[in-house]
Amino acid sequence: FRGILDHANTGNRTYTFPDASDTMVGRATTDSLTNKTLPSFLCTTAAPATPVAQTVYEDSIVKVCVVFDVAGVISDDLNVSSVTDNGAGDWTVNWATAFANTNYAASVTVTDGTAAGARWGNVAGDTAPTTTALRVQSSDHDGILSAPTGTTARIHVIAIGNN
Fold first, then answer.
1. Distance CA 108, CA 157 (A)
2. 100 phi, psi to nearest 5 deg
3. I want to staple 113 with a disulfide (CB 3.0 to 4.6 A). Which of 77, 100, 118, 152 is the partner?
């Protein structure tokens, strides 16, 4: 939450916030609010059909982000408990905190680590996503399932939804 409380004259004003535990941060020595913080800036509900401009909604924040190598070794993550190597170019990413349902959006990118050959990353079409995991696959430019071969090859997964 970000905003300015202002009024046109020098008279005292009382501003009431919906929760008595919410507090604010003062900007200068003339402010009457000092050393106060808001507990959260998130709207805890889903975005309405017409979202409000400059508003962050809980269901629009990245809930999963992971980078791992072809052996399933994680180099960085958010909300991932493990990656299972199912074979060449085939992995299952396991969430640390489950999604509320399987209607989340996921994006997969694969970098080969070399200048030669394109790699394609995708959500496995023959395996439905679950609330606790997502199966992802990598294929070469001919569509053949295979792991990238470069020494710096990485798989990146991002997912957004309710959890």
1. 5
2. -70, -30
3. 152
Give every strand in the sheet of 154-160, ordered side by side: 74-78, 62-68, 154-160, 105-111
Q: CA distances (Å), 80 to each of 25, 66, 69, 72, 130, in order?
A: 34, 7, 14, 12, 14
What is the Cα–Cα distance from 110 to 136, expressed in whole angstroms?
Answer: 10
Instruction: Compute the distance between CA of residue 161 and CA of residue 163 in angstroms, rounded to an integer.
Output: 7
Among 44, 38, 46, 48, CA closest to 2: 38
Give the model confidence (pLDDT) of 18-40 as tens digits. Answer: 555 555 544 444 545 555 555 55
Nearest to 154 by CA among 97, 114, 105: 114
Whether the CB-CB separation of 56 and 41 falls below 8 Å is answered with: yes
Q: Which of 19-23, 120-124, 133-137 has the highest mean pLDDT?
A: 133-137
CB distance 134 to 93 below 8 Å: yes
Task: Give the least confident one: 19-23, 53-57, 98-102.
Answer: 19-23
Q: What would the two tokens of residue 129 be? A: 């996503």
- What burial class does residue 86 get, using C-beta atoms within 10 Å of its C-beta: 0-12 exposed, 13-18 middle, 19+ buried? middle
**Overall pTM > 0.85:** no
